[in-house]
Structures are given as structure tokens and as C-alpha cells.
## 1
Amino acid sequence: MVFLCAFVVDPTTKSTKISQKAQREHHNIYPQGTPVMKPIYLCLTLSLLFAVTAYTTENTNHTLISGSFGVAWIDGDGIIRLYDGESVTTPVPGVKVHAILATDLLEEGSDQLIYLDDARKSLHIHSFETGTTIGPFGHDVRTMAAGRASANETFPSLLVSTFSGSAFRWTKEIMGGAWHPVPGAFSHISRGRFDLRSDLDGFAVVSDGNVFIYSPRWQTYSRAVEGKNIVAVLTGNFTTAPGDEIAMLDRDGNIFLYSGRTLEDLGREAVHLAEATCLAVKRNPEGLDTLFVLDRLGNSGHYNRETKTWTMYGAIGLGSSRVPHVSNIIAKDNESVFALLSGNLYEISEENFRQLSWLPSPAATTHSLQISGKTLARYRFGNVPFKPYIDELRTPSGKNILRDAPWDYLHHHALMYALRVGDYSFWGEAADNGKQITIQFRSGSNFVESELDWNTPDSNTVLNEVRRITVDQGDNVTLLDWQSALTPTIDTVLGGDHYYGLGMRFLEEMDNDGRFFSDAGAHDREIVRGDERLTRCRWMAYTAKVDGQPVTVALFDHPSNPIPMTAFTMGDAGGPFAYLSATMNLHREPVELKAGETFAIKYRVAVWDGEISPETVEGKYREFVR
């Protein structure tokens, strides 16, 4: 196992016992007169994650971890999300946190989720065995790590440092009592085995660009590497020599490996790595550990210590000249490697990048569409990874009918519009998919108008869109109109799969016992696969239940559209979920467009409370086309 923390040390000492002359005051549970070291001014913003066999993992900024419960991370809203291999859940709803960690502090035989709340910076422990959370303990905690730092411990204790510059050790026996003081004031550490004569953990630490090795057995620090402007360290068994080595990042994103007295430059430039931002170690109980890297552009790969070569995987799910927000990389259970980039969770390998989750960033901008101060819909358009969309659409009584980014189909964004343009699909959200970028935006109480560039993965604009969305409310009905004018910048072809177009993913509770009907009569038209049907119609409606009460939603074509609507439906015959989209049969008859030629579409979505008759739907359709 490795731990990543940092600490504050007197950089003028070469190899010395920790000075206990410097004292400072502490708050509440923290004891008075705890020994500290002289402060330095080191701000480590890189994210390093790793997996272990004896303990679980943590990282320098504690935003992505793995444990026996799965992979957990802090989303852009400060909420903990958890991926257990099947679904994404929220283990501690409504609590904003700034750091998380996984280890078995309570000796339950499985990991707990340890987190620091964002308000008081207090410690909390969430047990998946009991489903309960204990705490808060203390406050002002800056960072934390787990390790065996006392001969009396069989399970790891928790090492914490505070914003006031002190460090302590917490065990379950302490609970609400006084915490044990620890020499120094750690802020970043990586745990390793350096003293094979001791059963205690050792720690590689960074101070003022220099690397030290701390021995809890002797409470002394020895200098390992100096003068390299190192900002982060990560330990692992990368060679056949006994004990662990130390992987290091300097301020320029270069990678080094320290083994005993030898410092080796791993040469990122040779494989065209940009500045490295994250390191991870994948533990191998039967052989050498593997060192992984993630650079600021989202490129990833691993290093083979025996051949001294890099194997690169390419860019993860981004493919843009824009610099992505690269958060973390982590290896779990000697099986999978995960990365967190731009709000997306990926599972990565040499052959594949698999997107597992997307959750809206807090910086994502929304606009509520209202009538007389009542919100009928909401448009999400700022800092969305791939496309703007309507993420809420409500009945007159206020029931939302849309589901955004379910774990099994994360690219299903409630009510969205996407096609294939030339060789690029704008429906999916993978490395080779295009993105809809908002260039201009204007809004009023009941409308939004925006100009979008449809960009390829390498940021070339292939199409411009002018989009206008408006809402209105009639007698027991919410109305949303979607208009888009598409103008390609090059000669191209509009196409896509049989469900591409203006699509709606419904709430999970609407997936069961729903019923489709249309102006075309019985819902028995062409089956494409499973229960997926294509129906040529003027309107298609769906009735299901929300909160135990029926609602009805209808999708209207408009006669001005260049191609009549073919409604795509699924979910009315035991399918996995319910879906409705307005397509133009482009999978069979793609449309060729010249550069500068405009292709305009117009649709209406109507939403009612209750089970609505075909006659009522037909009446509202006629009002739309009048």
C-alpha cells in the first residue's frame, strides 16, 4: 500500500531528529504543545492515486479513491459518488465534502468511507457493513492518510494534518477523545516499505522540492533526493530489489524513479507525454508493480521497469485541443485502472476507454424556462462535456418526466438533439464523438436562443446550429417547442442510427407499464430490434406513471420539416427502458448538404397530468400546425 500526504519540514536539516522546540496552540480536541516543524510553502495540486493489497487507496487531493466497496469520487458539487461495478450511487446524500479516503479503521473486515465535511473540516466514517455514519470528530483537518505507525496496531490508524500546522494519529479507540500527536505537520505522504527490519510503515515525503524518508520507528527523517523541485511522490515495488522505490513528479511534469541511491529520469518526452499530472501504481503480489501516468491532455500509459519503455494508451475520452480538467488516475484490486477527467469516470486499458459515469459539474450553467414565475423546463448549456440539453420538463402540477445520464446509458441526456455529421456521431460521448459547443447565448423568461458549433474531436467545426427553445402552458398542458437550423461549414452528409434525432429518456419509474399510441393507430409498426419500433406518424404519445399518478407526453412533427417524422419508441413490451425520439429515417436515407445550405427542424413536446385521450392529443397537435 502507499499513502500520499505532504508535510512541512525544516529544509535546512540534512538528516535529523524532529525538532520539538517549535510549539503552537491548537483547537478543541487537539492537545496543547504538539511538536511541529518549520512551515514551508508547498502547494501540491497534482492528483495521484493507486491500489494496494493490504490496505486501500487514497490520493494527494483525496477526490478519487478505491476500496472494497468500489470506486468513489467527489463530484463537482462536492457530493460523494460511488461506482460499484454496476451502478452509480450517492452513499452520503446531501453532504458536501472536500476529501475522502478508504480503509478499514473500524476492523470490520471491509473498508469504510472516511470523509472530511466541507463546513467544519471534521472527520466522519461511513460503514457499508452497518449503513451508518459516525462523527464528526475534530475539525480544521486539512488532509489524511492511513497506515500502521505504531507497534501496538494491527489495523491502520488515521494520520491527519490540520490547517493550523499540526499532525495527529486517530484510532477507533480514541473516538471523541484527545488525538495522539505526531511529529511534524504532514500534508502529503506516500507510504512504503523502506526499513525491512521494522514491521511499521515508512513514508516518503516532499518538502520544498526535496524528498525525505520518515521512519516512525525512530521518528527521524533522512534526505533522499534534493535539488529536483519534486512536488509529488508515490511508492511501489518497481524493481527486484528489496523494499519499495519512489516515483516522483517535478514541477515541470517530469517523472523520476528513486531506487536506493540512484535517481532515474523516465523520459516522458520520448513518448510525447505532455506534463504529467497524475501517477498511479498497480500492485502485483506475484511480481513487480506497474507505474501508470496521466498527463494534462488526458494521455495515459504505463512504464515497464524491466524494458525501460512506456506503453501509451492515447487520450481518454476527450480528443480536443482544449486542455481538459485532468483530475485523477487510480488502479483497483489489481484488475482495473480508472481515470477521472472533466467530470467523467473512465475505465482504461491499452485497447479501450470505457466511460462509466458523468455527473453535471457545479459550473454547468442552467436557465429555467418559466411562465408567470413557474418553472416548466430547464436548459443546461454551460460546461457540459458534449452537448447542451433540456434536463427537466414538468407537467402543469410540477412533476418532472425526464431522466438525465442514467448509469447504464450516460450519454442519454434527458431531452437532447443529435445526429451524425459526416464521419462523426454527436449522439454518443466517447473519444471519437463530436461535441456541441455553445458560442452565443440569449434568454428570456420562457425561451433560450443559442448558437452552437458542432466540432469534431480535434475541434474542427463541421456545422453551425441556431437553436431556439420556448415553453408555454395551456389548459392542463405544458408545451415546449424546439427549433434548430443546421448549416454545415463543409459539404457533408447528415445521418445516424435509427434513433438519432430529438430524443427523450424518461424517469426510471416510467419504464414499466407504459403505453405508446399515435395518430397512426395501433402501435404495431416496424420492429427494428427487440421492442424498438419505427412509426411514420404526425405525433407519438406515451402514458406512464410518476409518483403513482398517470402522466402523458407527446411528440409533435411539423409540416415545415424537410423530412416527415418517423417516431422511434422502445419500452412498451418489456424492454430495458422507455425512450421516444423524433427521427427522419436518416439511417436509411442520409441527407447530403452543401456548405452554407441550411437544414431546419421544428418539433413540439406536450406534457399533461393524467391519462390523455388520442382525441385530446390530436387537438393540441392541430393547434401546433395551425
## 2
Amino acid sequence: MLPIFYALSMNNSDIRQDGQECVNLLSYQGKKKMKIRISTLILIIILAFLCFRPVWNEDVWTESYRRLARMIDVIDQNYYKQVDREELTYASIRGMLRTLDPYSNFLDPQNLSTLREDYKGKYYGLGIMIQKQADRLMVISPIEGTPAYRLGIQPGDIISHIEGESTKPISSFEAMQRLRGEKDTQVNVTIIREGMDEPLDFTITREEIPLHSVPYAFMLTEDIGYIFIRNFAETTTDELEEKLKELKDQGMEKLILDLRGNGGGTFIQSLEISDEFLSKEDMIVSIRGRNKMYNRELRAFYNDQYEDLPLIILINQGSASASEIVSGAVKDNDRGLIIGDNSWGKGLVQTVFPLSQDAAVSLTTAKYYTPSGRSIQKDYSHIENFLLNREVPEESREVAYTAGGRKVLGQGGIAPDYEIKFSYQNVTYNMLARGLFFSYARSFADKKTPLSKTYIFPEGEERPLEDVSGGRKVFSADLTIDTPIFNDFKVFLREKAFEFEEKDFEQALEQIKRELQRELVSAVYSIDAGTKIYRLNDPVIKKAFEVFPEAEALVRSYNKES
């Protein structure tokens, strides 16, 4: 049986496309005559896993397994209602793995299919971003050029039924799985659209949809570029290099690399992305396991990439696994600064072992260590503390030192150089949970609120905000959220029966302002435009602007030593 090395991701995103770590370590250290993607070298391994059923030796079944089979027979024959034998088998495997660690996991056919899609960076579906808002399954945006886009599905549409079944009781993840399927197959959905008396029924043929792992890249200032990596997949390095080149051509001299909320993905991509910014032979990560075949030191392989680009990486508690490998490599080599909140703390590596053609087990086989030699794995012996992501006391953490002698800590994730914590006020959180910012912005863009009727909405290229026609304003991409917009929004909230105290609204005013600005600009211009204005007012990015001189000093020192 041929195992596949995999660094399991931890993804907490609620927004999904149709709704939305494998590594041959030996290949990374092989000799190369030209620069080729390391992931290409493991393609034959992936194909072997995806396409061929292994031959099994029945002698592996021991008395313990026979007892398990007998237990399933007893349940199947005597339980008061009918049971699914296959699901019982799956549940027993999951229970077994739960006794090991939080990341060893059984991949049933559905989960295995999702893993393959995430790795390949594509799936077969409709091409929509969806989000559960209260009990409504809301379309956030159709992806241009996809089946959903061509059929006229719009932001704000509510998917009320999939194949005749209500979407109210299901999660966005379950909806994503139902909307995806085999290429050229069809799915029936029912849409409720504001202003329409009757629901709309669509029969949509699934097509190949790309899962971009680098969805946003733009210039924040004349010389500071910004790139957001959503997850690590087979295409991530290629996407990143394309965006880096585009931003360089636009005058980028410094980079903010945003890994917040990035739960990880393919291990190999974390090596390649680290290599973009590190000098040849710099340590990226090492892994060690009980079986010495897993023990490796992984170093940067190339020079003359972006080693001299001042770099700041943004992380938070949702940054895990592959994100922590990149952050740890940059920090421990004193290559750049880390800003934000403490990362999750996942320092274990999984290997995927096929059990059949459509099932596998992802088993923890090693720990990984950052270049300073520290493990960042958070203690999971007290599962409540682990799941609630409680901070590990500093006195309980291993002390190590970076290449330049800076103190760093293990056993609790990557600690930022500058800590900027963020949490939503309750009133903001409740508005987000009910999708009120999004809904208001859609109503505004459709000129259905009192204030929106006093605006002229631009068509095509951006126009300045100024009085142009009888006191009416042109909506601009640098929209300022002022008192009239706040008041218009409050009217909308009351119409939606959302109760709030004025004092709570005032305390959350800056958060509400940012959310309104993002959603309004996204609704009138584009999601990219809304994201850019949101990032420009991000406290973490504002801190990055402030400390870039320190990042520039670090890269100068790093290149002298290299």
C-alpha cells in the first residue's frame, strides 16, 4: 500500500463555493536541472491513490476485528429500527481514531471527494458562493462565466430548495455537497428573489469550477502590495507567483501576505511558498516521527526570487498547519515580521492511507518543527481547552531562538511580533449572523432604501463623489460612511425587526462602519473593490504600515547574512 503524506487543514470558513498536506518528501530533496513544481513530482503518487484499488490481505483481520463485525451484526439484527451497516462501520473507525489525537481522521467517500477537490483546486458544480444566514441559504455571489452566472442567479437570491428538499435545516457545508456532483450531471434548485411573487425553478448542469486559493491581490498604496491566500492547494504557488509578478509590475516594493483564517492544506505548497522568500539552503521545516522514514529536514531550494522583498505576514487564531509552517519559517529565519493574533497551534503531519477506492484514513505519523527547533503543537490532552483555543501560559511553553537571537515560544502556535486582537461586538456579530449588512447593501444598490434614491450609481468606470444633479451624489468606490447612511441603515434594521440599543450601536460604530463600507462597495462595484476598502481600514494592516521600516531593516540584515 502506498501512503500519501498530507498535512491536514483546519478550515473554519462559512462562505463556500457551491458553497468551496500531500507530499513526497524525498522528491523535495532530489536534484533538479530546471525549476519545476515540486507537486508535479508527486503526481504519480496522487494518481495511484485516486485511480487504483489496493489488494488486501485478509490475514490482517484479527479476533478484535471479528468482535467488531459481530457487534455490527447484533445491532443490525436487533436494534429497534433499521440501521445502515456501512455508517456503523464508519462510526466505529471514527471512534477508534478519536482516541489518538484531534487530527487523525477517517475519510469516507464524501470527505475523500472533498479532499481531492480541495487538493486539485477545482470541482464540478454551479459556480456560486453561498452562506447560511439564520435559516436562509443566501447567494453571496455567482462566479463570472459559470452556469449560475449565465442563468442570471444574483447576489441576495435565497436557495430555498435543492432537489425539492428545503435548505432550512442544513448547513452551508451540506448545501455545498448537494450542489456539487459529477461533471455534466444536473441539479434542481428553487430560488426566492426579492420582488418576485413566485419562486424561480432552475435545472442547472454542473461544470468544472476553479477553486482559487489566492482570491485577492492588489496594491494598497503606491508601493505596498497585498495578497490573501485562502488555503493551500495544488495551484497555490502558481497563483501566488502570478499575483506577485502582477503587483511587481504595478510598482510593489513591499508585501503584506495575509494568512488569516487560512486553515492550511497541502504541505508541499507551504514549502514552495516559503521558498519564494527564503535563500537557498535556509531551513523551512523539519519533521520527525516514531518511524524514521518520515524524518526529514526541508530547506529552501532556489535563489533569486523574492528574498529581498520586505515582508509582513498576517495571522490569527484561524491560521493553522501549512500557514504556520510559512509563518514559522519566515519568523525563525528573521526574514519578516508577523502581525495579528496567536495562530492555532497545529504541529502534526498526517499521512493518508487508502483503505479502498473511495475511503481512506488520515493518520498522524509525525510532528513538524520550525527552523528554531520548536514544536508549535498545542496540548490536546484537555480537549475542552484545545477546542476553545485557550491560550497556553508562557511558562508552559518551550523557549527557542531565531537565527538572529530573538526569543520564540513553542507549544501554542506562532506568536506574532505585534499582537493585534480583534473580536466583534455582540451587536455587530448578531447583524453579521443575520446577514443584515449584506441585505442592506443589496437593497441600497437596488435603490430600495430612502437614502439610496438620492444617489446616482456609476456605470463602468469609477466616478468621483460630488454633487452632480439636483443635489444627488454619485456613489464612489471610496465611499465614506456618514450619518445619513447610518440613519438609513437603522431604518432598515427596524424594518427587519432587529432590536438594538443605541448605546450598543455607538460602541460598535467603527465595526459597523467597516462592514457597511465593504458590503456597499461590493454591491455597487465588485467584491474585489469592497475587499480592498475593507482592508485599507483594517487595524492589523494599519499596524503593518506603521512597522514596515522594521521589516525593511530585517530583510537588509537577512540578505547580508545570506
